[in-house]
Amino acid sequence: xxxxxxxISDTLLQEMQEWxxxxxxxxxxxxxxxxxxxxxxxxxxxGQLQAFCLCYENPSFPECLMLxxxxxxxxxxxxxxxxxxxxxxxxxxxxxxxxxxxxGSTWHAHRFTENLKTPxxxxxxxxxxxxxxxxxxxxxxxxxxxxxxxxxxxxLIPPVDDDAFFQQTGISFHPFSAxxxxxxxxxxxxxxxxxxxxxxxxxxAFIALYQPVLPILDPELIDLAYDGDQLAGLFFAVPDMYQPxxxxxxxxxxxxxxKYKGMAQMLSVRFIKKALKxxxxxxxxxxxxxxxxxxxxxxxxxGGDNTRHHVLFKR
Length: 315
What we know:
By secondary structure, the protein is of the alpha+beta class.
């Protein structure tokens, strides 16, 4: 086997995408955020790709070299060779740790699913043995996340008056459109700033991430809760294009001011009522950090069955 660090060229990216096309039977991932990487690491045998990844740096994590777009055959030797080359790169660039999988930041694809099932819409798909390859290479879990699927039933709705809450707090709801992405960007950069592994994202990059999914979004599944001209709460959900009748909750957040305490629960109540009227029968609350408040909210709404477990590694 030959292992090398090499520049990211269009030819190499095409070769990587062809490897993915041959290795996945369905829901094939794409190499993403290649423009944010500074080099690739490849492992070949007889000229054929056996493993590859892209290398990223992020000023928010100055001690870490991030490995993203990781793909590998079942060969433990190929995986070990790739990580050995990554260690060399980390040393050359003054990094103490390897972190991944992460395509540059948490705004892009990151995390493996330990108990991988058929991916839901927008879930990062990968080959099921990848987490074990990283563990065997000495990586440890840095962050854990869960995605919970629960049936949508009226019994999930607690005896609270969400309309009264929003009226008392002076909250009004603005319709979602493409123009909403700018205030949503500013809101997310503010309320998620204290999250583990957060790094800010520029407005144009944020809009570019969401532009491709705009045509499939249902504005009725997105709540923008405004207090005057200030966005104070966000509930963002998308229909699962892979399974009719299922909806995926991607983001639930509120401004940290004491005035808005309880808003997350009320936004959830409002959403469940709307989802039931639209005929959805189940929902997935996706990628919740195990220590995140939204995890507790989901559990309160019957989400105790943590159906999928996601991990981010570091060594």
